[in-house]
Design brief:
The complex is a heterodimer.
Chain A lengths: L7 H13 L5 H12 L5 H13 L3 E6 L10 E6 L1 H18 L3 H4 L5
Antiparallel strand pairs in A: 1-2
Helix pairs in contact in A: 1-2
Chain B lengths: L20 H10 L3 H17 L4 H28 L11 H17 L1 H30 L10 E7 L5 E2 L3 H10 L3 E15 L5 E8 L3 H5 L5 E2 L14 E4 L1 H8 L9 E4 L2 E8 L12 E4 L19 E6 L5 H18 L1 H4 L3 E6 H5 L4 H32 L1 H9 L4 H37 L14 H19 L1 H8 L2 H7 L7 H37 L9 E7 L7 H16 L4 E7 L10 E6 L12 E5 L5 H5 L3 E4 L13 E5 H7 L9 E4 L9 E7 L14 E3 L2 H4 L3 E8 L7 H11 L5 E6 H8 L1 H35 L1 H9 L4 H29 L1 H5 L10 H27 L3 H6 L2
Helix pairs in contact in B: 1-3, 2-3, 4-5, 4-14, 5-12, 5-14, 5-15, 6-9, 12-15, 12-18, 12-25, 13-16, 13-17, 14-15, 14-16, 18-25, 18-27, 18-29, 19-23, 25-27, 25-29, 27-29
The chains are: A mainly alpha, B alpha+beta.
């Protein structure tokens, strides 16, 4: 089966989860995207996108216990599935193939 | 990037303890349940805490809440219609249906007029049809409240001329002895009995029955015993069994009444028992009495005497009614051979008891049922029309969804849910309307309608209404979805969102409109014919005064009323009532106009040869006292009326009506002719005709005038009489005084059935009046619905053609031309519908003919008027949108494209 095609935002989400490792919960993913990609993202978009990636089988989550500051509500701890990794890999390969040989054209003007 | 804007503690704090409650509530509703939803809520709360619970945190919380609410809602509704690639959401699960219901309710709430129109239409249609169905069901369809009613049959004899007659008692006894098809055969007849020896003497309708009567019907008294075969015999003590109603009304439900003696027609009767509540035999009888007082009567021996007895039988289990009827016919044939003198030409007719009970009202109810069917059909057509119109407006949306892969099943299911919701709501509203209408109908039903007390909104009617609504919703709800799923993507794109409805849905709507108009015309024609009938009935010359006349009945039954005393009573009442202030004239008489048939008697005339027996003329006999014709307002055409000089000792005289005079002595003069009543061989006085009276409608206004003979009351002295009081003021004011005059002679005389002649006339037209009222209401509703429907279709057409009309106007089309164009679009449907309706109404003419009077079911004038009225209303309904079409501003119509 060919790996699923990933949109740019989906790539960012999966990468953020990989970066955060065992710390990958909703709040931290939002902060990571904000800090590293400069994306202030609405929670509606965040959670529905995560759900969609889950529907596609690219990530999964397990429940972690809540803390008092979140009224002991459960926390979802996300992880990228092998299919997710394959999809990321395929996306990177595609992009790299497309980038190859274009360094001169895209080179930033020297100061 | 720093987003945190920490504030000093205490500054701008809304509520330190928790995020905004309303936002949290919205979140909980928007988010899915379980861990996934809870975790999102937890994240937001944690973030709110992290931001220090400030106003800024609260605002952020709100913003995120709204973004989640929007995203999750669209995520849940859109993918179903758009069908995800893996196709998982195209199944119809409970969730989907719940979603559809919510979606439907929301969309109806947005356009309440649509839902309301459907609701009102269905409430009207279902309400009226369920109410009438309850009536018909209660009176016609529901089995009699007797055990195994389908085994009960009603038997009468048939005379040589083919008319039904009552069963002679000796013949009945022979059937009972010979027939093998029955578990029992019982004979009974109606007797009017006078209850005396009580405070208010009372005239009671009783059924005189053979001893096995209650056993055959399968009824057991709730108190005491029923009848036994021994009660038939001469010399047995007369017994009476009370109906529950009479027992409660007269004795207050006192159980000790069993065993007591009641004086009926001057003879003591032992109360044997009380019947269960609700028991009926054809009509509500107050009492059932045993045969023993009649056991010696001549009619129980004389085979040729058909004395009003009719037979009810209980078929043996498994015996078909036809087989039983054949057996009785065979026995009747044997009896014809055995007793040629009395039984020649006498045969038997049998029918289910249930059909005999409702024989008189069946026709009315069948016509009403037809009207109801029409109304329900119109309602359904109207609803269908609305649903199809709505579907047409949404066709683009549906087609886009279908083109994007929304499954047909899913689209259909959503539309079905939508139409089922309105149908169900309409059904509920209709049931409420029906509940109310049943009460109204029972209240306006002609008095004496059988089984009226059994009419109630029942389970069958409810099922009927729900079935009607469901079929309505299912049949037409899905239509737009089918159209949409058949449409190709190209069509969709070419048409665009404003492309308007497709040709099939236009054709369907126009077809539905034609049906609706046709049905409305059928109802209108029925209402028109009934209105004509009533008008004709009211124009009939009844031969008596309809105003200022009060009538009271009394009966003089029993050994205490010998002939001489009855004559004294007649004279006492006449002179006493005439002396009441405000009374212009008073008289006694043996029967009143519109009473219905009394026994007819054959007669012969002295100046003519005696005809063959089967050619003998029959006449009804009425016995008026002096002053009767003056008091009731019947003209004496020739000769004289009876006077006080006509006594039992004076010459035997008679009067005849004009019909009889014309029939027997055409072209000659009846006055002075001598006639005799009874069979030619029977002894009887020859009477001289002294006067001719104008024809009077004795049998009822709609019935032909019978040949009528009058004999002075003093020369025949009937026991059942009526007092006719002609007043100068309102007739009812004389009632009290008249009763006092009667009771001054004998307080035991029961006075009953006090009515004005006006009320008598109204009662004799009650059936026609009720049919007309209901048909008129139905026709009005149908016409209203049809014109609303027409208006809707034409207005919709105008909206869709706004662009075209704008172009026409811009190119210089006259306003009148545009009006004509649009008008014709609507009127053509009305004209086709009317034409079909006329055809259907003519085809159904024979069903209604029997209800009509003075007008044929194909009366051209009525049909002309009805078609004109319908087209006029249709023209108005179409003119409004046509006029609006001329208001179209060409420039804006063109810009809209």
């Amino acid at each position: 089966m060919a790996p699923a095609y990933l949109g740019e935002f989906e790539q960012l989400l999966l990468l953020a989860i990989l970066r955060l490792g065992s710390n990958a919960c909703g709040l931290e993913i939002a902060r990571e995207l904000d800090a590293r990609a400069g994306r202030a993202i609405s929670r509606g978009a965040l959670y529905t996108s995560l759900d969609r990636l889950e529907d596609k089988g690219l990530l999964r989550w397990k429940v972690a216990a809540g803390t008092p500051e979140r009224r002991n509500l459960p926390r979802r701890q996300y992880a990228v599935t092998p299919a997710g990794l394959a999809a990321l890999r395929a996306s990177r390969d595609t992009l790299l193939r497309m980038w190859r040989g274009l360094d001169d054209v895209l080179k930033e003007p020297s100061r | 990037v720093t987003r945190r804007t920490p504030r000093p503690a205490g500054a701008g704090r809304a509520d330190l303890t928790r995020p905004p409650r309303l936002a949290e509530w919205i979140l909980r509703r928007a988010l899915p349940g379980g861990d996934s939803g809870d975790s999102v809520l937890g994240d937001l709360i944690e973030e709110w805490h992290a931001r220090g619970g400030t106003y800024a945190a609260a605002i952020s919380f709100w913003r995120q809440t709204l973004s989640i609410a929007v995203r999750y809602r669209s995520r849940r509704t859109r993918p179903d219609a758009l069908a995800l690639p893996d196709g998982r959401t195209t199944r119809i699960g409970l969730d989907n249906i719940r979603q559809d219901v919510r979606y439907a309710v929301r969309s109806y709430a947005k356009a309440p007029s649509f839902a309301l129109t459907i609701l009102v239409t269905l409430a009207l249609g279902i309400g009226a049809s369920t109410a009438i169905f309850s009536m018909v069901n209660g009176i016609l369809l529901r089995p009699l409240p007797l055990p195994e009613p389908e085994r009960l049959v009603f038997v009468n004899e048939v005379g040589p001329t083919g008319t039904g007659v009552s069963v002679s008692w000796p013949n009945y006894l022979d059937w009972r002895a010979r027939a093998r098809s029955f578990d029992g055969l019982a004979s009974s007849r109606t007797d009017l009995l006078t209850l005396t020896g009580v405070e208010t003497p009372q005239r009671l309708e009783a059924r005189r029955v053979s001893g096995n009567f209650l056993r055959v019907l399968g009824v057991t008294p709730t108190l005491g015993r029923g009848f036994e075969d021994a009660d038939d015999r001469a010399g047995a003590e007369p017994v009476v069994v009370l109906s529950d109603e009479f027992w409660r009304a007269r004795f207050g439900g006192d159980g000790s009444v069993v065993g007591r003696l009641l004086t009926l027609d001057g003879r003591p009767h032992r109360v044997a028992g009380v019947l269960p509540p609700g028991f009926r035999y054809i009509r509500p009888y107050a009492l059932f009495v045993s045969m023993s007082p009649h056991a010696d009567a001549i009619y129980t021996r004389e085979r040729s005497d058909h004395a009003g007895h009719f037979v009810v039988g209980r078929l043996k289990a498994g015996v078909a009614i036809d087989a039983a009827a054949a057996e009785l016919r065979g026995i009747a044939a044997d009896l014809q051979r055995d007793y040629p003198g009395s039984n020649t030409g006498i045969s038997v007719a049998m029918q289910p008891l249930a059909s005999r009970v409702v024989a008189d009202v069946r026709l009315t109810l069948v016509v009403l049922m037809g009207a109801v069917g029409c109304l329900l059909l119109i309602s359904c057509v109207n609803v269908a029309n609305l649903l199809v119109a709505r579907g047409a407006a949404r066709q683009h949306e549906l087609a886009v969804r279908a083109a994007l892969g929304g499954s047909r099943l899913r689209l259909v299911s959503q539309l079905l849910v939508e139409s089922t919701i309105v149908s169900a709501a309409g059904g509920a509203a209709g049931l409420a309307a029906a509940w109310w209408l049943v009460r109204v109908l029972v209240a306006v039903a002609p008095p004496g309608t059988p089984r009226l007390d059994e009419v109630r909104l029942d389970g069958v009617a409810v099922v009927f209404a729900l079935a009607a609504t469901t079929i309505c919703g299912v049949a037409f709800g899905a239509f737009p979805a089918f159209l949409a799923s058949r449409m190709t993507g190209q069509e969709t794109v070419v048409r665009g969102p404003r492309g308007g409805a497709s040709a099939p849905s236009h054709r369907l709507r126009r077809g539905l409109m034609v049906v609706e108009v046709a049905v409305a015309l059928v109802l209108l024609a029925g209402a028109g014919l009934m209105a004509r009938t009533l008008r004709e009935l009211m124009r009939v010359d009844t031969g008596f005064r309809g105003d200022h006349v009060l009538t009271l009945r009394a009966s003089l039954v029993g050994p205490q009323w010998p002939q001489a005393r009855r004559r004294l009573f007649f004279e006492h009442v006449r002179s006493g009532v005439a002396a009441i202030p405000g009374v212009r004239a008073a008289a006694v008489v043996s029967r009143l106009p519109t009473d219905g048939s009394d026994w007819s008697t054959p007669f012969i005339s002295a100046d003519m040869p005696v005809p063959e027996r089967r050619d003998l003329p029959f006449a009804a006999i009425t016995m008026p006292g002096p002053g009767y014709f003056d008091a009731i307002g019947t003209r004496v055409v020739r000769g004289r009326a009876f006077t006080s000089a006509d006594t039992e000792d004076s010459a035997a005289v008679a009067m005849v009506n004009e019909s009889l005079a014309r029939r027997i002595w055409p072209g000659g003069d009846a006055i002075g002719k001598r006639v005799k009543w009874g069979w030619p061989e029977s002894p009887g006085a020859w009477r001289e005709v002294v006067g001719i009276a104008a024809d009077v409608k004795y049998e009822g206004v709609a019935e032909p005038t019978p040949l009528q003979v009058y004999i002075p009351i003093t020369q025949e002295t009937p026991r059942d009489i009526a007092v006719v009081v002609n007043t100068t003021g309102p007739p009812s004011t004389a009632q009290g005084e008249a009763e006092r005059v009667i009771h001054a002679f004998d307080p035991d005389v029961p006075v009953y059935s006090v009515r004005t002649t006006d009320e008598m006339l109204a009662a004799s037209m009650a059936r026609e009046r009720m049919a007309m009222m209901i048909l008129t209401v139905f026709a009005a509703v149908a016409l209203t619905l049809a014109s609303i429907g027409l208006y809707g279709v034409v207005a919709h057409g105008v909206t869709e053609r706004t662009h075209e009309i704008g172009v026409r106007m811009a190119l210089g089309a006259e306003a009148s031309h545009v009006v004509g164009l649009v008008l014709w679009q609507g009127l053509s449907m009305a004209v086709i519908g009317a034409a079909i309706g006329v055809g259907v109404a003519l085809a159904m003419a024979r069903w209604i003919q029997a209800l009509l009077f003075g007008v044929t079911a194909t009366d051209p004038a009525t049909f002309g008027a009805v078609v004109a009225a319908l087209l006029a209303v249709a023209a108005v309904a179409c003119y409004i949108p046509a006029w609006r079409a001329t208001r179209v501003d060409p420039s804006s119509a063109l810009r809209a494209e």
